Amino acid sequence: MHPRWLRTKLPTGKNYNEIKSILREKGLHTVCEEAMCPNVGNCFEQRSATFLILGDICTRRCGYCAVKKGSPFGTDEDEPRRVAEAVKLMVLKYVVITSVTRDDLSDGGALIYAKTITCIREHSKNCRVEVLIPDLWSFSCAKTVINARPDIVNHNIETVPSLYSQVRPLANYKLSLQLLKNAREIDSSLITKSGVMLGLGESWDEIINVMKDLRDAGCNMLTIGQYLSPGRNALPIRRYYTPEEFDMLRRAGENIGFNHIESGPLVRSSYHAKMQSEDIFVIK
What we know:
With 284 residues, the chain is an alpha/beta fold. It has one domain: Alpha-Beta Barrel (TIM Barrel), CATH 3.20.20.70. 39% of the residues lie in helices and 15% in strands. The protein is built from 11 helices and 10 strands. The strands form 2 sheets. The chain has an 8-stranded mixed sheet, with helices on both faces. Helix 9 runs parallel beside helix 10.
């Protein structure tokens, strides 16, 4: 059983139902639902959602994730338009766009990301756009996304280097750091963000070292949350961190130099993303 600080209410409410209706009408996915995020009810009720583009089947088999795994086929070229229409219907002022990882595509889906950003700008001129991108192995793929002018580029480091072979077996810690560095090299004014989940067997010193590595890569913002196993076939939870420990990590990150840190048991990459961004845009 989870500790008391991880318990959440069942999702319900007028806005929650309306958001789900819009998503179904447009044939769209959210990572909130596909990854079984514990905050889905809270976020939908606040008219916030993280759109999952490039389908709902991931080519990776990461042991912590609830998103479906398999062999997707092709891309939906009309998806960017439908996402933009949904953003307008939902009257969003801030939107997060993420995706499954598509190793089957030569550009990793970068062009669909760029088209989605462009369509949102056309439909909702005052809406800020954050992209939470997977591994885009080439500099040119990252440039395709960044040239579409998102407001924030997020790429989750997820865990400490010693656990990568278990947690992200097809990913590479140094390449993930390099992706964040590349983003700043392409556009030095860009705000970059990353996220870490705890409870998979990492040590305290390892967490601090990851935070330092991210700052050295030019990362401005960081989210830190508790890993929650999505099912019996997923990686087990090795430890529950207390709210007090998350607060200690927040203070440590501030001392390291992050402009904004969101740290807590239920924090996820996109949780309160709009509020997180408001602080950093004021600083900028």
